[in-house]
Amino acid sequence: MGVEMTKEDVVSELEAVSVAVSPAEKYREYLATQRLRMTREREIFVEEVFASHEHFDADQLIQRLEQRKDGKRVSRSTIYRHLKQLEEAGLIRKVARQGDRDLYEHDYGYPQHDHLICKKCEELFEFHNEKISELLEEVAREHGFRIEGHRLEAFGLCDKCCRRPNTRPNKMNLI
Questions:
Q1: Between the CA of residue 89 and those of 32, 82, 115, 148, what are the distances in Å?
Q2: Exposure winner among 20, 93, 98, 159, fewest CB in 10 A?
Q3: Where are the domains of the chain?
Q4: CA end-to-end span of the chain, whole Å?
Q5: Whole-angstrom Cα distance, residue 98 to residue 9?
Q6: How far apart are CA 42 and CA 24, in angstroms?
Q7: What CATH number is given for 111-166 in this structure?
Q8: Which ranges of the chain have pLDDT less than 70?
Q9: Chain segment 68-99, per-residue pLDDT in tens
């Protein structure tokens, strides 16, 4: 049941997928199921979260919102509360913990993918590999299990962090 992968299988650019409604509209629908309404703060928040497809933590999002030049502000407590709501709505998901912070990424509008995470520099590499998905389906069938989704996070060292330093140590430092 081994899966052989080439570098081309692992490294890929993930493109956004076509969705029926915008993230803001999907969030509005979720809020309605919770008997909540889309406030101006929530609208600004979801707009900023989906402004770029980068992994982010709460502090980075707070910083981005504080740097806005249009005067639109969202309180810190609102950001933490809305991150949880966006996660419950299926719009974002926690990817990994780096240091003492949770990282998030878009879950809505992007294809299923997995991550390689460097333990030294903490860089995340996104990839999709059909062979992994097929293997998971095969294992699930063997156990009578129906997969609704999966998340794979592999930890190790990236190519850059595995390389030997190019400089030689100073002889005085060896004493």
A1: 11, 10, 22, 16
A2: 20
A3: 19-110, 111-166
A4: 52
A5: 25
A6: 9
A7: 3.30.1490.190
A8: 1-18, 97-99, 167-175
A9: 777 777 778 888 888 999 999 989 988 876 66
